[in-house]
Structure formats: structure tokens, C-alpha cells
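## retry 2 of 3
previous attempt timed out at serialization; input unchanged, resubmitting
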Amino acid sequence: MPELLLQKIRASHKSHLAVDRVDLRLANGEIGCLLGPSGCGKTTLLRTIAGLHPIEGGEISIAGELMSTPKKMVSTEERHIGMVFQDYALFPHMTIYDNIAFGLDGKSQQEKKQRIEQLLSLIGLPEVGKRYPHQLSGGQQQRVALARALAPKPKILLMDEPFSGLDVELRESLAREVRDILKTEGISALMVTHNQNEAFAMADSVGVLKDGKLLQWDTPYNLYHQPHHPFIADFIGQGSLISGSVCDCRAVHTELGLLKTHLPTGTASGEEVMVLVRPDDIIHDDESDWQLEVVNRAFRGSHFLFTLKLPSGEKVMCMSQSHHDHPVGSKIGIQLEMDHAIVFAKNLVE
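## retry succeeded, writing output
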């Protein structure tokens, strides 16, 4: 039985259809993430799961219990969920101990003390129980917010942009720490973010939304290497789309050569398609006779990301170790290392 099951969810925000027939299944103990640009519907979808927003179609179930239909909405308090927000929402007048104890009504003092000490140890802050939120850093406050949400052992934890208020360097490392904590507790979780590095560091499964539609729910690896839609190819990682045509041999002819691929269903010989080329598909090789012009470059510390121009004017990207310092306008040698090309119908891209 899935811990969270969404079936054909439709929901509007200010008369705009924000969530459009979304299906999603989150297994027991699984960590999922909803990823997409601002306005794609991910926060509205999270709010429907929390019982903070009504749905116009479909059903939401948590641990096998029906929570939302167009005619029924179980209250947030009765859904046995935990919630973590980007602003932490800690009570400033309460100690850290009392903040975590807030969700433990009905427990004896000994049970509360044992659970709070367990959680403070789990989040790596065993000595802060008597402090107040303002005495902690942003990252420490976010850990405490997580501990408070986990205290009553919810069926599922929902997180809305939980790391957005933190320094960029801290976000990914904290996401990994939170993942370890959730796995230790064995609690399913669903997070909303627009930052793919956070999503990949945190989640077992990631869903990419666009205009209220869930385009793909998959592992981070498959989203990068096997995107189902050109929007995902563009949104996840970096890459370029170049023109190609389908050959009789069911391969695709491009300026980079004849590429092996699994073609979309119904693709005919001679049809024009678009091929996804990632920076790691093109290897910088100073000894190669195949050379392309550098039209842009970005220094990333350990490596350069070069933008290269093909004879037609189309562009691809290539990563190279940072000691290969080639200026714009020069030419560099390349080799193609693409085992399997990702192809999209041209009308999807246009």
C-alpha cells in the first residue's frame, strides 16, 4: 500500500487551473520531490495534500485512508502529517525544547523528554534544548523545525521550499543531512523546490511539473538521462537540442554523426527530429582533428563549460578540465561519447 496516492488531481488557484490531472504514488519510506519553475503548481499540489486547499477532481489518500475528493476534505489536523516551511515557523518565545514538545500533547513528561532528546541527538544538536531560536543559525533552526515536525511521528512529512532561506553552499549539504534523518526515522516525505541540486541530493523520486501537469515522476538519474519531454531536458541539467533526421536504419543523422537511439513511437524515416546533447556527451580532446569554435565559456573552478558552434550555427556544450584554458574564438578538438541519443519530435520543441 502506498503511503501517498494522488489520482487525477485537479485544483485551481485564483480561478486559474494550477494542478491538472496529476497522478502520483509515494511508497512507504520513500522521499519524493516536486520540481519546477515558479507558477508550475507544485505548492498548490502540496497544499492539497496537506488539506489546506480543496480539489476539483480526483482523490488523495494517505496510508490507505481517503483524505480529499471534490466533496470531502479531511482537516489538516486529522491527516497525521508533519509540515516544514521555508520560514521555519519556530515560536520565538519558546525554547528549542518547548518548540519540539509542541506537537507532543498527550504524552507523559518522560515520553516527551525521551523523544525530544532522541530528536536533538538525531539532528546533531544535543546541547541546544535550553536555547531560543534567535540564538541558532539558519541551518540549525531548520533542523529544529524538522525535529518539531517529526516529533509526533507523522505518516508523511511535507516540506515547502525548506532550504530557500539558506546560503547556497549550505542547501545541498543540509538536504543530504535531512535525507539521512528521514531514512533513520523511516518516514515518507514530499518536498517542493525549484532547485534541482536540492532535489537530487534529497529525493528517491522526483516529479517535474509544467503548467500544472506532472510531466515525469522518476529517479533523478532517469530524469537526466531519459527525459520524456524537451522541457525536462532543458530544465534538468544542461544541454542543447540540435536538428536531426531519421534514417532508414532507424538511427538519426546529425552534424555530430549517425546516432543510435530509440525513436518515439510513430516516427517515420526521413522525419526531422531534435536530439538532446549533454555537455558530457562531447569530450574535449586536443589531439582530435575534429575541431569546433569556442563561442562562449564559463569558468567553474575545476572545469570550463565551453559553448561550441557547429558548421550550421547550432551550438553544443562541452566540459573540460580547467587547465585547458581556450579563449573565445579559438577552436578545440572534440570526440563524441554518446551511447544512446535522446530524441524528441520536432513539434514538441517548437
